[in-house]
Specification:
Blueprint: E1 2-8, H1 14-28, E2 35-41, H2 53-60, H3 78-81, E3 84-87, H4 90-99, E4 107-110, H5 128-152
Parallel strand pairs: 1-2, 1-3, 3-4
Helix pairs in contact: 1-5, 2-5
The chain binds 4-nitrophenyl phosphate.
4-nitrophenyl phosphate binds next to loops.
Length: 153
């Protein structure tokens, strides 16, 4: 069993998208590795809220339903509860490094280390195209992440 936590700022756009995409890919895979998946935000403003309607729509266009997800804030305990804590951008990564306990066991990385490198830009203040771009970056990285998990198991 591998445990993966995706983290962005608000937990309403990028990280719930990653949660839904990875879960969907594994659901569709024969002989999928066993993976526990969750997402969280470094900020607490949207705790308890469903994903942003634009993120729900971008995922729905690809047959993925994010509507039941609810935002939560990341905690220091998450570094023990997960094997991978994967940040969407360098701001998230810096905040996570500050939160990580000295003995925190999780591997802490940028998600796009498993994809095309760099960051998933925050789509919150932009239009639909930003959500489609975020989706594509996340999808590519999730394919790479599955290969990493398969190699680990
Ligand atoms: P996310 O996007 O980090 O991908 O969930 C954002 C959501 C909300 C805000 C910023 C980014 N906000 O400022 O409220």
């Amino acid at each position: 069993m591998t445990r993966v936590l995706f983290v962005c700022l608000g937990n309403i756009c990028r990280s719930p998208t990653a949660e839904g995409v990875l879960r969907h890919m594994l659901d569709e895979m024969p002989d999928a590795p066993e993976v526990e998946i969750d997402s969280a935000g470094t900020g607490g403003w949207h705790v308890g809220n469903p994903p942003d309607p634009r993120a729900i729509e971008a995922a729905a266009r690809r047959g993925i339903d994010l509507s039941a997800l609810r935002a939560r804030q990341v905690t220091a305990a998450d570094f023990d509860a997960f094997d991978y804590v994967l940040a969407m951008d360098r701001d998230n990564l810096r905040n996570l490094k500050a939160l990580r306990p000295a003995q925190g066991g999780a591997a802490l990385k940028l998600l796009l280390e498993f994809g095309e490198g760099g960051e998933v830009p925050d789509p919150y203040y932009g239009g639909e195209a930003g959500f489609d771009r975020a989706y594509a970056l996340i999808e590519g990285a999730c394919r790479g992440l599955i290969r990493e998990i398969q190699a680990r198991e």
